[in-house]
Write a structure and sequence with these properties.
By secondary structure, the chain is an all-alpha fold. The chain has helices at residues 2-12, 33-42, 48-61, 65-70, 73-79, 86-104, 112-115, 123-134, 143-152, 160-170, 176-189. It has 2 domains: 1-13 and 137-212, Helix-hairpin-Helix base-excision DNA repair enzymes (C-terminal) (Endonuclease Iii, domain 2, Orthogonal Bundle), CATH 1.10.1670; 33-107, Hypothetical protein, domain 2 (Endonuclease III, domain 1), CATH 1.10.340. The structure holds iron/sulfur cluster. Iron/sulfur cluster binds at residues 148, 151-152, 190-191, 196-198, 201, 203-204, 207, 209-210, 212.
Length: 212
């Protein structure tokens, strides 16, 4: 796993960032745990490009826990429509922000058990927040990580939670956050879901599914 991460990090530099494109991402852009949490909830069951459109529209209008908690759910729903499931996600966002105000002094918690109490926050979202917002080593298993880890034969699992625990066994803890950062970029650019470009893949020699 170390060699895979070393090669991908040499190739992709900054890596992926939840809800944003790493292309053109300003080095000064320093998202708060609030931004990472909301963007990661928006990213559920949609493409990265849709998440970016929805989060840009939402943060352009409502940019704090209080703003979203007090916003009209219908207006949020319209703003985040590109991310899909707008009513369900709008309700979750207002519920999450209301809960943050009532129970966490308007702060996003970093403890995984506390994060998992929030609406629409499962292990993927919680680990994304811990990793990208708090700098805690965590493996955030999204659709790219789950797909590619199984495709390569690194794990043999039925769901992302199992993938997370199996990857934790074969990845040194000080590299856990690199898994999402670089494997997602690989899934967005080379190991595409329907058309993997194995001939351009820097880790093809370690992949059981290579067509190169
Ligand atoms: S060799 Fe092909 S299938 Fe394997 S990781 Fe690379 S692009 Fe994906």
């Amino acid at each position: 796993m170390i060699t895979i991460l070393d090669r991908l990090s040499a190739e992709y530099g900054k890596g992926a960032y939840p809800g944003r494109s790493s292309e053109g991402l300003s080095p000064e852009w320093d998202p708060s745990p609030f931004h990472v949490l909301i963007a990661t909830i928006l990213s559920q069951r949609t493409k990265d490009s849709n998440t970016r459109k929805a989060s840009d529209a939402l943060f352009g209008r409502f940019d704090s826990v209080e703003d979203i908690a007090n916003a009209d759910a219908g207006e949020i729903s319209e703003l985040i429509r590109p991310a899909g499931f707008p009513k369900q996600k709008a309700r979750a966002l207002t519920d999450v922000c209301g809960m943050l105000i009532r129970e966490y002094h308007s702060e996003v918690p970093s403890d995984i058990d506390e994060l998992l109490k929030l609406p629409m926050v499962g292990r993927k979202t919680a680990n994304c927040v811990r990793s990208y917002a708090f700098g805690i080593q965590a493996i955030c298993v999204d659709t790219h990580v789950h797909r590619i880890a199984n495709l390569m034969g690194l794990v043999s699992t039925r769901n992302p939670d199992e993938t997370e625990f199996e990857l934790m066994k074969i990845t040194p803890e000080d590299r856990w956050s690199d898994v999402n950062r670089y494997v997602v970029r690989h899934g967005q650019t080379v190991c595409l879901p329907n058309n993997p470009k194995c001939e351009k893949c820097s880790i093809a020699d370690m992949c059981g599914a290579s067509r190169a």
